[in-house]
Amino acid sequence: MEAFGNIVIGIGKEIPKDQTKTKLTSESDLKAKALRRPRRSEGEGKAKAISRSRRRLFDDGDYLKSIVPSQLIAERGSNLVVINPGSAHVRVGFAHQNVPYNVPHCIARLVKGEQKKAVHDQNLNTQATPAQQMEREKAYDMIASLLKIQLLNEEAPNNSFPRKMGRVDGYAPQQNRNNPHFSWADVMEKKSNLSTLRDSKTTEAYSLELSKPLNGEGPDSDEFKFKEFICGEEALRISPSEPYRLSRPIRRGHFNIFQEYSLQQVLADLCTIWDWILVDKLHIPPEDRNLYSAVLVVPETFDNREIKEMLSIVLRDLRFSTAVVHQEGLAAAFGNGLSTACVVNIGAQVTSIVCIEDGVALPSTIITMPYGGEDISRCLLWVQCHHHAWPSINTTPTTKPIDMVMLNKIKESFCQIREGEFDAVAIVHSYEEDKPVGSHKTRLSALNV
Hints:
This protein has helices at about 25-35, 40-60, 65, 70-75, 130-145, 205-210, 235, 265-280, 305-315, 330-335, 375-385, 400-415, and strands at about 1-5, 5-10, 80-85, 90-95, 100-105, 105-110, 190, 225, 230, 245, 250, 255, 295-300, 320-325, 340-345, 350-355, 360, 365-370, 425-430, 440-445. It is of the alpha+beta class. The protein has 2 domains: about 80-120 and about 185-335, Nucleotidyltransferase, domain 5; about 130-185 and about 370-445, Actin, Chain A, domain 4. The strands form 7 sheets. The protein has a 5-stranded mixed beta sheet. Strands 15, 16, 17 and 18 form a 4-stranded antiparallel beta sheet that branches. A 3-stranded antiparallel beta sheet has the order 9-6-10. A hairpin with a 2-residue loop joins strand 16 (about 350-355) and strand 17 (about 360). Helix 11 crosses helix 12. It starts with a strand and ends in a 5-residue tail after the last strand.
């Protein structure tokens, strides 16, 4: 007998009658079995209740006929999960949600007994030669002249147009909340074989113990251990001194495969990240995922082999009952109620353009460029260093992910797409090992590039 999803195909073999009889169980056996069954926690009880309601949609054929239309609309899409993988972030959520969860697409695994080496962007030139530096200077001067940006030693003719300054707290009042400082992630967890802390310890003492620096003088190794892996934003806030290796499965719109990061490792990290999001964010345990269907929304940069591998993860490893693949450009057009459109998608690492006509993506119109928002953030840092506007701190977004998070926040709060010149005063944070977070108020220049 072979099973394909929900369809079972039999070979036609007759089953003996004695195997079809149901074995009766005595009342004492049922009571003993009930006593051996472990108690469910409150979270597990809610998950089981949700599973029973989902199962009712499939088992009861008259259920959809008996409910009112408003209830049907409220439950529509509740058993459909949308997964949109990207280079820097992955967006996952239910189909009826207005805003999905936007999680950094990275994972940090604990390194045991080997030299730690972070996985960087292989397509990124981190060390430019003097000739490349001169080429960058010429390109910047040309762009500055086109955008009418004055150099620091130049003044406007007759001072007719004074330099524009932004607010101290940002260009808009609400942008002050978008520039906070970050703290290092907690990489320790309590060992599962231990019970609660000693009665002499209070909750406040326990919190203080977790916040100690992990340099050998932190929590007791008999009670705490390093987490095996950390996903999402916490993985970007791990101190460089901790024994973790940061990996990004997708870079520049493709699997990040090279000599030290094989295809099997990429697929394993993708499965771990997506499974963590389903459990931690959507609260869908693995045993209930056969009641859900998945929509895999893929960018136009992936090839057929990469799409096949991701679809295998969704069906085989994550255990969804059914899955369908959609192009990102088509999903954007249909989501806005359009059948014909030109979709321009500016992502963190890739910019793509595709034309949609009568609900069909035209392959000849697809254009992909390997740069995006993160490159603008690094360009922002380079421009500030060029204008001597950046504080004298060690900011290396290519080796310290937390610096890239800070630069992205500054870019989102202050950068403008406009002609002329725009300056602003911002708070820049420095993150150094074994030092508290430093705050530096500085004047940022040429924020419109």
